[in-house]
Design goal:
Blueprint (H helix, E strand, L loop, with lengths): L8 E5 L3 H14 L5 E6 L15 H8 L4 H7 L3 E3 L1 E5 L7 E5 L12 H10 L11 H7 L20 E3 L2 H14 L3 E4 L2 E6 L6 E6 L4 E3 L2 E4 L16 E3 L8 E7 L9 E6 L2 E7 L4 E7 L6 H10 L10 E4 L3 E3 L3 E2 L2 E3 L5 E2 L7 H15 L7 H27 L7 H8 L4 H13 L12 H10 L16 H20 L4 H8 L10
Parallel strand pairs: 1-2, 1-11, 2-7, 4-14, 11-20
Antiparallel strand pairs: 3-6, 4-5, 8-9, 9-10, 12-18, 13-16, 13-17, 14-15, 15-16, 18-21, 19-20
Helix pairs in contact: 1-6, 1-8, 8-9
Bound molecules: flavin-adenine dinucleotide.
Length: about 500
């Protein structure tokens, strides 16, 4: 890129999690390039105010930005997250944790779960969960940092955070403003697109102020102020696969021991989240309006809270899918403006991060080369499709037949990209590998087995290991995990020592 082609000014539209993460990420990376960054947000409109469970990738985002972890956690009232517990998904009464970590260890280059399968089929082993350190830690409400030594069993897991979304945006705002991002308060009432289309020249605020830029990043939330309303990117609707289209959310007092995981409990027309922070619990029921209504959803949520509600329940509508093009002309959509897949696996903040990373790697010239645009859209499409298929698996791999909702998702046609993965695992125990994108082997294994998709066979190479050696190796692995976890501190104690939230902050 030659100097005159360089982007000089980026305008971020929206100051929710997406806007401020983008501002923090880009100001950190491009501070030295002299690129001016402005962020426009409207207090009058506000943010969506949910989005509190994350994936381990956020740690690396923070690390890259040089953010001190314990300060960040204290300031956002965060807790550690070792995975997600799924209750009542395969059948009512079932429970499993999808952990951020491995099951067992490969033996002779063969995936561990094939060995477990053999022993399980011979009734020599029960749950695969006992071979996952983060699952056992979660069940016993323990936490400690992973080890950097790859030989240690303490290196077999990762972790994420559960955090207060409002405090997180505030934290990132301070970070970005300290690195030169200019915040502009005001409601955008017009987006000026060149007559030939595709290129935004400026946005106009209610007070008539015009804000020009070379690149506009649309972080305006579901409304997609630029990407959809002005540039008509189009929306690919996936609600036939993911029929949940509403949520009701409410925080409540924390009454139980602070566990290091998010919980997703299946309900008659969707599922309910429980996200424990240091000082309160976030709750929400994600449901399909085709199968229930707001009043019943709210009753179910409010009657199942563990402590007193701390606010009025809030309803949010959405449609599963993604923009057909996430980058059009000189506008890139990041966050809810780019699409939304329900929060079952806490993937939205990850997708924000993926968008920021892809954009930073391609940072366009002012000419906006078509190759950059195509590459960004290709990468993000892949990310979205991978998440979509994994989410559909949770609904489709069920034996539940106790409500019209579960009948629908159990019997609905699924995308071919998922159907063949499911078929392969059912027949052979093989998990399809892919190079990029989210959800690697252990995640698929967790959901398959947790939801009763047990393969007919296992890798025949396993039989080369004599049975007694196999059972001994399994017993040793299990014992090592049990002993290791018993010596760890509780999650509550770890939080108290490492990142206590400031006492002066209230309950909300
Ligand atoms: P918003 O928060 O809606 O922000 C939009 C911004 O644009 C605001 O600042 C607004 O003021 C501004 N704006 C809009 N219009 C204008 C205008 N005309 N002029 C000026 N400014 C304007 N994600 C996770 O990773 N984990 C979760 O657990 C999770 N749970 C969720 C639960 C539910 C029910 C939903 C719906 C989402 C959940 N998400 C979750 C997604 C997560 O909430 C979002 O990805 C995240 O909050 C980012 O939102 P955003 O910044 O794109 O949009």
């Amino acid at each position: 890129m030659n100097g005159s082609e360089n982007i000089k000014k980026i305008v971020i539209v929206g100051g929710g999690t997406a806007g401020w993460m983008t501002a923090a990420g880009l100001s950190h990376v491009f501070r030295a390039n002299g690129i001016e960054i402005a962020l426009v947000e409207s207090d009058q409109i506000g943010t969506i105010g949910v989005g509190e469970a994350t994936l381990p990738h956020l740690r690396f985002f923070n690390e890259h930005l040089g953010i001190d972890e314990s300060e960040f956690m204290a300031r956002t009232s965060a807790t550690f997250k070792l995975g997600i517990e799924f209750r009542d998904w395969g059948r009512q009464g079932d429970a499993y944790i999808h952990p951020f970590g491995e099951y067992g260890r490969e033996i002779r280059g063969i995936d561990f779960h094939h060995f477990w399968l053999k022993a399980h089929k011979a009734s020599r082993e029960g749950r695969i969960d006992s071979f996952s350190l983060p699952v056992v830690m979660g069940e016993l409400a323990k936490f400690a940092m992973p080890s950097a030594d790859p030989r240690s069993v303490m290196a077999s897991y990762s972790y994420a955070y559960q955090l207060d979304a409002g405090l997180y945006a505030k934290f990132l705002r301070e970070f970005a403003e300290a690195r030169g991002v200019q915040r502009i308060e005001g409601k955008i009432v017009e987006v000026s697109v060149r007559p030939e289309g595709g290129v935004v020249d400026f946005v106009t605020l209610e007070n008539d102020r015009k804000i020009t830029g070379d690149l506009f990043i649309d972080c305006s939330g579901f409304r997609g102020l630029i990407i959809e309303q002005a540039l008509k990117a189009g929306y690919e609707d996936w609600s036939q696969y993911l029929p949940c289209d509403r949520a009701v959310a409410v925080p409540c007092e924390m009454t139980a021991e602070n566990v290091p995981y998010t919980r997703a409990t299946a309900r008659e027309a969707g599922w309910q989240w429980r996200i424990p922070l240091q000082h309160r619990v976030g709750n929400g029921y994600v449901f399909s309006s085709r199968f229930t209504d707001d009043e019943r959803a709210s009753d179910i949520l409010m009657s199942s809270l563990e402590g007193a509600p701390l606010a009025e329940p809030k309803f949010i509508g959405f449609r599963a899918g993604k923009r057909r093009r996430q980058w059009v002309g000189n506008c890139v959509a990041i966050g809810l403006s780019s699409g939304f897949l329900e929060p079952l696996e806490s993937t939205s903040i990850y997708l924000i991060q993926a968008g920021i990373t892809a954009l930073a790697e391609l940072l366009p010239s002012r000419a906006m080369h078509e190759a950059d645009i195509r590459e960004f859209n290709r990468v993000m499409d892949l990310e979205y499709e991978r998440v979509r298929d994994f989410l559909i698996l949770h609904y489709h791999a069920t034996e539940r037949n106790d409500s019209p909702f579960w009948d629908y998702v159990r019997t609905m046609p699924i995308p071919e990209s998922l159907a063949y993965k499911l078929e392969l695992f059912r027949k052979t125990g093989v998990v399809v590998q892919y190079k990029d994108g989210l959800f690697l082997h252990p995640s698929w294994i967790a959901v398959y087995l947790g939801q009763r998709v047990v393969p007919d066979g296992y890798d025949p190479r396993v039989d080369a290991l004599p049975d007694e050696q196999l059972y001994k190796a399994l017993a040793e692995m299990k014992a090592l995990i049990g002993q290791t976890v018993s010596g760890l501190p509780t999650h509550a104690d770890f939080l108290r020592d490492y990142c206590p939230r400031p006492v002066a902050d209230g309950v909300l």
